[in-house]
Write a structure and sequence with these properties.
The protein contains twelve helices and ten strands. It has two domains: about 200 residues, Alpha-Beta Complex (2-enoyl-CoA Hydratase, Chain A, domain 1), CATH 3.90.226.10; about 50 residues, Lyase 2-enoyl-coa Hydratase, Chain  A, domain 2, CATH 1.10.12. A hairpin with a 2-residue loop joins strand 1 and strand 2. The strands form two sheets. The protein has a six-stranded mixed beta sheet, with helices on both faces. It has a four-stranded mixed beta sheet with strand order 4-6-8-9. About 50% of the residues lie in helices and about 15% in strands. Helix 6 crosses helix 7 and helix 10 runs antiparallel to helix 11. With about 260 residues, it is of the alpha/beta class. It binds acetoacetyl-coenzyme A. The site of acetoacetyl-coenzyme A has 22 residues, from helix 2, strand 6 and helix 5. Acetoacetyl-coenzyme A binds next to helix 2, strand 6 and helix 5. Keywords: Fatty acid metabolism, Lipid metabolism, Lyase. It comes from Sphingopyxis fribergensis.
Length: about 260
């Protein structure tokens, strides 16, 4: 399958998706967003693929935001009537049950920062820069930035970033809990593929369940989250991969996963 605005390749069980509009700093127009939904839907149903990576083409940007040129003349009523960005802020994240990583190679601004935050975690190049500069355009985040950034870095930093539009560099982003790890720019994709390969080698259903449990921590009280975690643990206990994983440990060998 080919896409107008993405490059998609596989490295073993890892799908590498690259945003490919470098001339516009990978700005997210409707075509990119639709291509991403299609590419991740294909990843989701391909049983040979176990973890995905999303990165940006070119040396400069992961994505410099929603496409300002596409939005500039759009009437407010259209944003409202189309429920603009709704496919993104809720559906997309929930439909991708397999793990995926954002490998942020440069500017991740506005919708670009919001897209990176939709990933299960972010690995950043030491040249990455994160920000929600929408206020400078007379608007505000529209793809989850005010919610996910606040949950990731806390109210003080999120509020400061949204109100001033300032960017956070990779080192500050790691210190603030926005990114899991910072790596040298030149090694970003290799490091992300290494990490994704580790995840891809895990029992696939257990990977989905682990993702589901951690995400539930955003949505529930501690009591409800603990019950949810226990129930999912109990379901995993009935899988063939649980029997295989524990037998493999005891027999001092590698597990062979069935994904069920
Ligand atoms: N939309 C459309 N085009 C964009 C873009 C965007 N978000 N960001 C950059 N581009 C285009 C530029 O217009 C330029 O195109 P031309 O060569 O045709 O003029 C090209 O990409 C290169 O950009 P610059 O010349 O501006 O590059 P720079 O190195 O001087 O600056 C930058 C880099 C600081 C990232 C700057 O491009 C910038 O500030 N971009 C906009 C960032 C922004 O405001 N993002 C938020 C968008 S709104 C949003 O995302 C809403 C939401 O919550 C969903």
């Amino acid at each position: 399958m080919t896409y107008e605005t993405l490059l998609v390749e596989t490295r073993g069980a890892v799908t590498l998706v690259t945003l490919n509009r470098p001339q516009a700093l990978n700005a997210l127009n409707s075509c990119v967003l639709d291509d991403l939904i299609a590419a991740f839907a294909a990843f989701e149903v391909d049983a040979s693929q176990r973890c995905a990576i999303l990165t940006g083409s070119g040396d400069k940007a992961f994505a410099a935001g929603a496409d300002i040129k596409e939005m500039a003349d759009k009437p407010a009523a259209d944003f409202y009537l189309e429920d603009f960005f709704s496919k993104w802020t809720s559906d997309f994240v929930k439909k991708v049950r397999k793990p995926w990583i954002a490998a942020v190679n440069g500017f991740a601004l506005g919708g670009g920062c919001e897209l990176a935050m939709m990933a299960d975690f972010i690995i950043a190049s030491d040249k990455a820069k994160f920000g929600q500069p929408e206020i400078k355009l007379g608007v505000a985040p529209g793809m989850g930035g005010s919610q996910r950034l606040t949950r990731a870095v806390g109210k003080a930093k999120a509020m400061e970033m949204c109100l001033t539009g300032r960017m956070m560099d990779a080192e500050e982003a790691e210190r603030s809990g926005l990114v899991a790890r910072v790596v040298q720019h030149e090694n970003l994709v290799d490091e992300a593929v290494k990490t994704a390969t580790v995840i891809a080698a895990m029992p696939p259903m257990a990977a989905m369940v682990n993702k589901d449990m951690v995400n539930a921590a955003y949505e529930t009280t501690l009591d409800q989250g603990l019950i949810y975690e226990r129930r999912l643990f109990q379901i995993l206990a009935a899988t063939e991969d649980k029997a295989e994983g524990m037998a493999a440990f005891i027999e001092k060998r590698e597990g062979v996963w069935k994904g069920r």
